[in-house]
Amino acid sequence: MSSRQILLSGLFLWIFAIVGTGIVAVTEETTRERIVENERRILLRNLNALLPVEELDNDIVNDIKNLPASKLLGTELDSIVYRARLNDEPVAAIFNSIAPNGYNGKIHLLIGVYRDGSLAGVRAIRHRETPGLGDVIELRKSDWVLGFNGRSLTNPQPDDWAVKKDGGIFEQFTGATITPRAIVQTVKNTLIYYKQHANTVFN
Length: 203
Ligand SMILES: Cc1cc2nc3c(=O)[nH]c(=O)nc-3n(C[C@H](O)[C@H](O)[C@H](O)COP(=O)(O)O)c2cc1C
Hints:
Layout: H1 3-50, E1 64-67, E2 79-86, E3 89-102, E4 105-114, E5 119-126, H2 178-201
Antiparallel strand pairs: 1-2, 2-3, 3-4, 4-5
Flavin mononucleotide binds next to helix 2.
């Protein structure tokens, strides 16, 4: 092979490497943007499921506040609260709470609390509870989670914030009390957190 051929081969290899790297970089960037956009859409769908669109007029996905780790919210790190507003007036706060004591570990929840401390709604957004037992916390599997709508710390009274097996008013599931017990406790604790921080959550 002449030195000219070697030089040409080297040049080709170099161009090939540059173009290849460029294609990978562009694909990665496009995919990343698509993932971020998908996550945003899923989040918005979850938030809108808790609050009817006509109840707010702000960009709720970006109206956020970082909250430090809190035992009441079940968080070990900072978490995000989303704020819903209408005509610049606070409407509701949606907390990312965690029930730490599900049957199979943490249950991630979105918990919407209206300004007056009543519940807009609760959704389980991530969990590993057992299919057919604990997973009926998902709205697509049962309407159990809707039983929280409109509840507050005075409805029922604090002592009744428990599953029926523990003397409270919330239904448990057949053969599965651990999952609903964990969620009832975390929803109640989130309402207590809201009560303690209502003045600052919307600032
Ligand atoms: C394989 C297996 C999976 C289970 N998964 C769940 C579950 O996801 N959620 C739950 O509450 N209980 C689950 N249980 C049942 C719990 O072990 C427990 O018996 C039930 O929640 C009643 O709890 P209690 O005695 O505190 O009322 C599961 C049991 C087995 C054997």
